[in-house]
Design goal:
Layout (H helix, E strand, L loop, with lengths): L2 E3 L3 H8 L3 H16 L2 H6 L6 E6 L2 E9 L2 E8 L2 E8 L9
């Protein structure tokens, strides 16, 4: 089961700026992630885990955290590292 790393400053600023309903929906996604096995995370249609970009050998992935937002994440061992939130879905795929 994935563990969550929510420690990136940019991600925290974006997370804390969400409206109450959006924040509750993101937390619901966090709970969902914690209940799945890694193979289920990759295949889940709601999360839609996909490669966003690759830089200097590092892979960055995009997942749907709520209908309006995607998050840019990395996998580091057992952790999903949340790096940023993107209300404009395309911005998760840009350098």
């Amino acid at each position: 089961m994935p563990r969550l790393n929510l420690n990136y400053d940019a991600f925290q600023q974006q997370l804390f700026a969400l409206e109450r309903d959006e924040l509750l929906a993101v937390i619901k996604t966090f709970k969902k992630l914690r209940q799945l096995l890694w193979q289920e995370v990759y295949k889940d249609k709601g999360l839609n885990w996909e490669l966003a970009r690759e830089e200097k050998g590092e892979r960055f992935y995009s997942i749907r955290v709520i209908k309006k937002f995607r998050a840019l994440v990395q996998r580091e061992g057992d952790f999903v590292v949340f790096m940023s939130l993107h209300p404009d879905h395309d911005s998760a795929y840009q350098n």
